[in-house]
Each structure stands twice: as structure tokens, then as C-alpha cells.
Amino acid sequence: MRRALKRCLPILAALLSGEMLQGQSGRLDFPATLHAGAAFSLPTSGSGKAELYIVGPGQVLRRTVNLGEAASFAAGELQNAGHYVAVLVAADSTRSAQFDVLPESEPATLSFLARPSRLPVSQGGGISGVVYVFDRYRNLILEPLSVSFELSGGGAAQKQVASTRDGVAWVRMNSSPQAGIAQFQASAGRVSERRVVQQFAGDPCALRMSARAAGAKIVLETAPVRDCNGNPVPDGTVVTFTEAYEGRESTVDVPIKRDIAHTEMPAHSGALITVASGVVMGNEIRWGGGK
User: Fold this and answer.
1) In the beta sheet, which residues pair with residue 224?
2) Which own/partner contact pairs does 42-51 have at CB distance under 8 Å and 24+ positions apart?
3) What is the pairing mode between strands 49-56 and 118-120?
């Protein structure tokens, strides 16, 4: 291919610059467009032999042809979409044509991007999906196509249909109210791609704690911590217990383990104990002075 391209480049440069004499050059009888992978033939006239070059994006085809006969190309030989130049070089003349190779219209592969792969539940428009549609030769299909998006798992399935624009389609989906694994699928024609999205619980909601005496200590424990949709908050989420007593304050940060947070603090009569996680406040307990 490199040798063919090296021989053809001076000819193409001469054609484009207009240096070839009018009497020595002419046009080839060639269609203005072809589809990628399609079989085609190029009719020729005259007698003797000539060299045919077809040059385009990432491809150079070369054939020795008998003038007066058609030069045939099998299906799959011309694969890359784009603008091409065909040059027929004979002993006494040079003829050329320019044409476009278009992508196939049938989708063969999808490049599907889903972001983010992990997010909280109940996020409006929190999940984005982007699809690039290619034919079997990896050409981006530029004509409008319908792409179906479906997000299932963690509640009722969501479906949207989007039309591609310049080979790309995109949507935004809401994360579901329930934590867990969601399947995000994009389909075009007979092909589909699937991605996994992890949906986890949101911020704690209605945080509650209880207290009991244990000698000189107070044992503090939350009820099972849930978000506002009832999903268990992930282990490791930090819960902060604060005890205020006679102008002094002590704080303990405790990670949730198996849905609850548990700690001990000094027992001071009249101490005010509060609990919080992030910006969410829970109940207060006045130790020795009622709740």
C-alpha cells in the first residue's frame, strides 16, 4: 500500500494543482457515492493497460486494468467512510474522479458510556447515557437513528428513546428510590450494550438514638439508620454523638456497622446528648433530667 500511495501522490498533487494539460486528463465515469463495504466496478474505455489508484481515508487500492474492461472490486474492499479520489493512469492520458464512501445504515456496534457508575438514590437526572453508533466497519453512522435507553432495577423501569445527531445520542435518567444494582441498556437496531450502575442510600433520615446506664458510662445506640426511602445507610457512614455538660463538650465520631452506630460516653447528670450524621440532626437526650 505504501508503494502504491508513493506512486499516486505526485499524480494527485498534479491533479489538485491543475498542472496536468487539459488534453491529457479527463473524468472517470464513476458514481458520486458508495456505501462502505459495497462491491463496485469502474468501467474504462480505450485499449492497452493502465494503473488505477483509489485513495481515501486510511486506504489505497491499486489495480492494473485492461482498458475497455471494467475494473471490479469485491464486497468489503472499500471499508472506510470519507472522501476518495480515483485516478486512472494510462500511457497517454490520466483520468480522475472524486467520490464519497458513506457508512452503512445498519448499526453493528455501539460505544456506550454511562456516568456515574455509582450514585445516591433519587437523584433527578443523575445518570447520563451517551451512545456512538457504528457500522460493521467501525464507521460512525451519521444519518439519524433511534436509540432506546432502559434503566431497570431498584424500582419501576425507566425508558427513553433518543435520535442520534451526527452519530451520537444521549439521555439523562433519574436514579431509582431503592438502593442496589441497576442495569442500564442502550439498543439500536439489533445490537445493544449494557452497563451496571450502583445506587446507594442517600443521607440518613429521622435519626434516632437511645441511651442506657452502664456504671459510670452511658451506652448510646442508634436505631437502624435509613434514608428517607427506607434504604439502609451504608456501613462506614459516620454518626456523631455530642455530650454537653457544664459548658464543656465532648464529641465521638462512630461509623455505622450493620445499620447502627454504638458508643459509650461519661454519665453526667443533666448532660445534653445529641446525635447527627452530616447535616441531619437526630433526637436529644437530657441524661438524668428526662428526654
Assistant:
1) none
2) 42/70, 42/71, 42/72, 42/73, 42/86, 42/88, 43/70, 44/68, 44/69, 44/70, 44/71, 44/88, 46/90, 46/93, 48/90, 48/91, 49/90, 50/88, 50/89, 50/90, 50/91, 51/7, 51/88, 51/89
3) unpaired
Q: What is the per-residue pLDDT across 45-90, written as a single tens digit (0 to 9) for each?
A: 888 999 999 999 988 999 999 998 989 999 999 999 999 999 999 8
- Condensed to tens digits (0 to 9), the pLDDT of residues 152-191 reads 987 779 999 999 999 999 999 999 999 999 999 999 999 9
Domains along the chain?
2-102 (2.60.40.10), 109-200 (2.60.40.1930), 209-286 (2.60.40.10)
Q: What is the pTM of this model?
A: 0.75
Residues 6+ apart with CB under 8 A from 210: 220, 221, 222, 223
Catalogue the E-assigned strands of 76-145: 82-89, 94-102, 109-115, 118-120, 127-134
SS3 content of the chain, % helix, strand, coil (to 5): 5, 55, 40
